[in-house]
Amino acid sequence: MRKKNLRFLAAFFMGKLARRVLKILGKRATTFPGRLATKMCPDFLGMINKPETIVAVTGTNGKTTVCNLLVDILNDNGYSVLDNRTGSNLSSGVASSLLAGSKLNGKAKNKIAIFEIDERYGRFIYPYVIPNYLVCTNLFRDSIKRNAHAEFIADIVTNSIPKESKLILNGDDLISSNLAPENERVYFSIDRLETDLEEGINIINDIRICPKCNSMLEYDYVRHHHIGHAHCPNCEFASPESDYMAKLNLAERTMIIEEKEESIEYGLISDSIFNINNQVTAIAVLRELGLEGEKIRKSLENLKIIETRYSHEVVEGIEVITHMAKERNPIACSCVFDYLNQLSGTKEIILLLDDIFDKKESSENITWYYDADFEFLNSENIIRLIIGGVRAKDYRLRLLIAGVPDEKIVCVEEETDTPNYLELENTDKVIVLHEVYAIAEAMKIKNKAIEVINRRKQKDEN
């Protein structure tokens, strides 16, 4: 930790004051206090006192869910944890969290910190905030405008990781599992599933060629995209052996995680493979922190995925579901499309994947549509797709290319009007699929869909 000076002290107290004023005004104070402090003192992050143990969670998908699980389980077991889950995962958000977690005398209030860190911004944070443990959930293609390509992001992350940090990495991901090869590490994995394939069916796979000798990799099995297990036939490059191997029993909604010295059974909080992977990630981190498996198991019994990401209720015999998908992210959307396709029963889907930039009529690159597997939505049990927003016609074109019959597709200019176009004849599920920044809108549309269902029911009764 760098020596404090008068500039730091002024920044510290001004940041504290800004936070207090914002709280009085009813604001969350998640970024401004940290932005103010780091502007006044560029070395602020290096000088402020920090918790004894810092866990940084980065990666393309799952960061927020993993952080939420970690904080909730640690809190449930009596730990006082500092986190930035209500704020920014950039430098200003981390600085604001450290301000909130500091006493007026400068000492840290908490012994553990869980920080979500944007993949590209770790290089600005880790020189000052050195994680004891650095977790990478996965590395995939994301917004082309921001992140270019997974290998580009992997290089940024590798070059930013402090040598002191112990890595907790996804053994099923051949990109993120090879980050910072000189660092101490452990791996977590999900054992081969019945649904895994010998050949991938997704449009993209970003690691087909061995990065060491340029030979064609041989996949032992593929779960989706480049997630699975592979080896190079001409050199030693291969998927690593895992320290935390999860064996799933989806029928019983349980899994056993095999460690070096013991095997522990946990209940599943979701049947989505993405969320199961997030759960396995969190358990591996907690075990590395020394929390007993039995305590983790008990805490998981009371947890569920937060309603802003997934909600479910039954109205007049029809399941009404909201499900979040990360827009501009082809892998996240592909996995959600596949998950929705595999749900039982007939489904009508309201598709709301316009992002916040589209709503401002920006030039956000939409080529990601053609990396995402919209083909999963070309299914007999998906009987209607209602698309709302300024990009509705672009989505319609992509669905037509995926083979979805035109008569199944409805384009609506205003998102709020989409529930009015539900057919509700022989419909088992109505699903509102929304992007990250449309949570409030999705909940309004869900409530309107419920009103439409109730209205149709009353009309049928009359």
Describe the overall structure.
This protein is of the alpha/beta class and 462 residues long. The protein is built from 14 helices and 17 strands. Strand 7 and strand 8 form a beta hairpin. It is globular, with a radius of gyration of 23 Å. The mean pLDDT is 92.
Keywords:
single chain; 462 residues; alpha/beta; 9-stranded mixed β-sheet; 6-stranded mixed β-sheet; 17 strands; 32% helix; globular
Layout of strands and helices, then pairs:
Blueprint: H1 6-24, H2 32-40, H3 44-47, E1 53-58, H4 63-76, E2 81-83, H5 91-100, E3 112-116, H6 122-125, E4 133-136, H7 144-147, H8 150-160, E5 166-170, E6 185-190, E7 218-224, E8 227-231, E9 244-249, E10 254-258, E11 263-267, H9 273-288, H10 293-300, E12 310-315, E13 318-324, H11 330-342, E14 347-352, H12 356-359, E15 382-388, H13 392-401, E16 409-412, E17 429-434, H14 439-461
Parallel strand pairs: 1-3, 1-4, 2-3, 4-5, 5-6, 6-9, 13-17, 14-15, 14-17, 15-16
Antiparallel strand pairs: 7-8, 9-10, 10-11, 12-13
Helix pairs in contact: 1-2, 2-5, 4-9
